[in-house]
Amino acid sequence: MATLLHIKASIFGDDGQSSQLATTFIEQWKAANPQGEVIVRDLIEENIPHMDGVVVGALRGPAEEHTAEQRAILQRSDELIEELKAADEIVIGVPFYNFNVPTQMKSYFDLLARAGVTFTYTETGPVGLLDNKPVYLIATRGGMYRDAGIDFQIPFVKQFLGFIGLNNIEVIYAEGLAMGDLAEQSLQQASQQISAIH
Ligand SMILES: Cc1cc2nc3c(=O)[nH]c(=O)nc-3n(C[C@H](O)[C@H](O)[C@H](O)COP(=O)(O)O)c2cc1C
Question: Rounded to an integer, what distance in angstroms lies between the CA atom of residue 72 and that of residue 21?
């Protein structure tokens, strides 16, 4: 059975533009995969701890020195990685807040970055350890950044996912959402791009 992992990260929940476009994506995906299963991981609800001494000790420190809190963090990291590995396709809502990803998405990435588990270093550089699979990023922004040379967000997300082995990435942009009439046009274009995927 095919599985689609939907990673949500809008602070507006289902009302977020990235969530609404992801809903359109999921409807199309379900039509193409009637037996398929959709798994939702809401990073805002997930309440992943920010990287600090406790978290880094859980992810990189010796297991015999872990506290109960660190064992729980490591287990959560394992579960989130397994979920990514198990999915056949992944759709990620990527809202743009103050020029970057939601802070919760950064914390999520921090739990995914595990030497020997999701990436390794070789003599020729880093190698991602996840099997490649289609990943769709739904990038929603109030302004226009994509072609302006000032997008520090999607290049970062692509770099991170590629680092762990996921580099089959298509980006669906919905920009100018705070720019009057442009918003409607932008959302329509994004929906059309989504419709052409499955
Ligand atoms: C706290 C906050 C910060 C934002 N910062 C930016 C920004 O730096 N640049 C921009 O173009 N839009 C910015 N926006 C607008 C969002 O990108 C826009 O609302 C988008 O729809 C967010 O995705 P979402 O609706 O899925 O949450 C910001 C919105 C919020 C709430």
Answer: 33
